[in-house]
Amino acid sequence: MSSRTRTRFPLDRQLTARMLATMFLLGLLYAVFAVVLFEVLGSWIWVVLIAAALLVSQFWYSDKIALFAMRGHVVTEEQEPKLHAIVDRLCAAADMPKPALAMSGTNLPNAFATGRSPKHAVLCVTKGLTQRLDDAELEAVLAHELSHIAHRDVAVITIASFLGVLAGLLVRFAFYGALLRGRGRGNPAILGVLAIMMLVSAAVYALSFLLIRTLSRYRELAADRSGAMLTGRPSDLARALTTLDNSVSRIPVRDLRTAQSFNAFFITPVRGSQPGLSGLLSTHPSLDKRLEQLAELATQLGETH
User: Fold this and answer.
1) 244, 273, 288, 297 — which has fewest CB within 10 A?
2) 49: containing domain
3) How many domains in the chain?
4) What is the rounded CA–CA span in Å between residue 292 and residue 85?
């Protein structure tokens, strides 16, 4: 197996450009936010230490955190021979390192990839997914997830999302810290500064939220396209997406709530993607848009049914 970071997945320049643009805008937002935060905390040391500790823990252990939350466990070739055989074939075709394979016992039909790099990645599928898809559809879904790994989408979204969470945590730290020290009590100036900080934080979080969701929707379209090009059968992925979208509506609400926090990493959202204004807040593009892209790709590839 090749140890190179480059793979045979086609280079998506639009995805790269959007990732760079989003990270630049996020960086600009958080730079402004850090300056405001510095005025309250009075030292860059706390900002750096808190940011470094949270980022390292989330980035380094993202695979373990995700598997624990989804009750997933790594499976061997003896335990899941068909799953391993499909991934072996796809990784050979893509010339990429094989990720660890995991299985979650939940009935929720879905799949996700996690990990800090292609060499430290985990591809997890649920029992509900393997029970609802045929072999061709399962291969299409796995190719989609391998595209995420090859393009380092997981690391980019993890870091981008982390910054928004960090903004909220640090504002709370500054706010409650000032109150506990008595700096804000009966001092209109301090209370005014804290109020401004809370407003700035809310604005930063809202803007970063929209930027990240926009990037997330595009990365799903990019993974659909790359995965379908790898298998050469876009219609298989189209059937899989349709099946999964129909199946999610029949999953108990309790199971959906458990998985909703990982919506951005799933191949399909657990509560579906919505049009209009709600679509701007969605982690995934609409099913119609995904199917339209796959239909166009099938025509380009001359796929026969």
Assistant:
1) 288
2) 13-301
3) 1
4) 30
The reply to whether 2 falls in a domain is no
Question: Does 224 fall in a domain?
Answer: yes
Of 137, 139, 145, 220, the active-site residue reads 145
Question: Starting at the edge strand that comes first in sequence, how are the strands of the sheet with 100-104 ordered?
Answer: 72-74, 100-104, 121-126, 111-115
pLDDT tens column, 70-94: 788 999 999 999 999 999 999 999 9
Q: Tens digits of per-residue pLDDT, 224-280?
A: 999 999 999 999 999 999 998 887 666 655 555 555 556 666 777 766 555 555 566
Instruction: Evaluate whether 112 touches 223 at the Cβ level (below 8 Å).
Output: no
Q: What is the CA radius of gyration of the chain?
A: 21
Backbone φ and ψ of 274, nearest 5°: -110, 150
78 is catalytic: no
**Cβ atoms within 10 Å of 157's Cβ, excluding its own:** 20
Question: pTM for this structure?
Answer: 0.74
Task: Using DSSP, state whether 270 is helix, strand or coil.
Answer: coil
